């Protein structure tokens, strides 16, 4: 298994997340990672007529707990509100019909845990973009530990030759465990693509949920996502 990427599952993941998945030969979903309040595991931005809008799936959070231990809070019908917001924001999107598939796969059931919602959403996006890289849950590999050592151990457990790390990890990733395991560390080098968006008065908005890419570019979404990477490779 040459190149492995590892990432926590996200609700409405953004393009950089999907680019990392697409570059790997195997994508490990870190479903047993610790829940980070204020992070991106249960929220992301979309673009509306009013500009950037944050959609958050509320959870019941008490101290230190993993994504698998974090329950979704349905005391308020946030799911219905998210559907309405998405339908209004993308009513004029060229591929707005794809939203019905996302709605059916993400919102037309009640998820008990955040890990389940985030995994379901992540896999739904992957299917829509036709990302072919297989996935595996970290919890199924029975690899204990934490931090960089666990990432290296997960890579070793699936026979990885290389670990694809996100650019934001440069400040804290310890490469020593990978060196000891004979696993090369590669860096994603993500460049955000551009596409024609709705609501022109707000200009192009980057780092939104990849749903914006999907509903505006449809079957071309994966090619658009790969565009900056292929251009960089051709320039070299």
TrEMBL record:
Q: Which Pfam families match?
A: WbqC
InterPro entries (UniProt xref):
WbqC
Q: What is this protein called?
A: WbqC family protein
């Amino acid at each position: 298994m040459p190149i492995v990427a590892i990432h926590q599952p996200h609700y409405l993941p953004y393009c950089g997340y999907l680019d990392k998945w697409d570059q790997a030969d195997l994508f490990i979903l870190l479903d047993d990672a610790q829940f980070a309040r204020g992070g991106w595991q249960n929220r992301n931005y979309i673009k509306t007529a009013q500009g950037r809008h944050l959609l958050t799936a509320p959870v019941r959070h008490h101290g230190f707990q993993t994504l698998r231990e974090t329950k979704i809070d349905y005391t308020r019908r946030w799911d219905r509100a998210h559907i309405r917001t998405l339908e209004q924001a993308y009513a004029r999107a060229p591929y707005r019909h794809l939203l019905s598939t996302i709605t059916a796969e993400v919102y037309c059931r009640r998820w008990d845990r955040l890990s389940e919602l985030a995994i379901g959403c992540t896999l739904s996006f992957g299917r829509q973009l036709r990302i072919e890289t297989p996935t595996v849950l970290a919890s199924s590999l029975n690899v204990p530990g934490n931090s960089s050592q666990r990432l290296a151990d997960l890579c070793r457990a699936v026979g990885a030759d290389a670990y694809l790390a996100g650019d934001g990890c440069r400040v804290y990733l310890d490469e020593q465990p990978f060196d000891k395991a004979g696993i090369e560390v590669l860096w994603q080098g993500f460049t955000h693509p551009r596409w024609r968006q709705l609501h022109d008065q707000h200009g192009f908005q980057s780092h939104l949920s990849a749903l914006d890419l999907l509903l505006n570019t449809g079957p071309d979404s994966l090619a658009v996502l790969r565009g900056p990477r292929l251009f960089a490779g051709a320039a070299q």
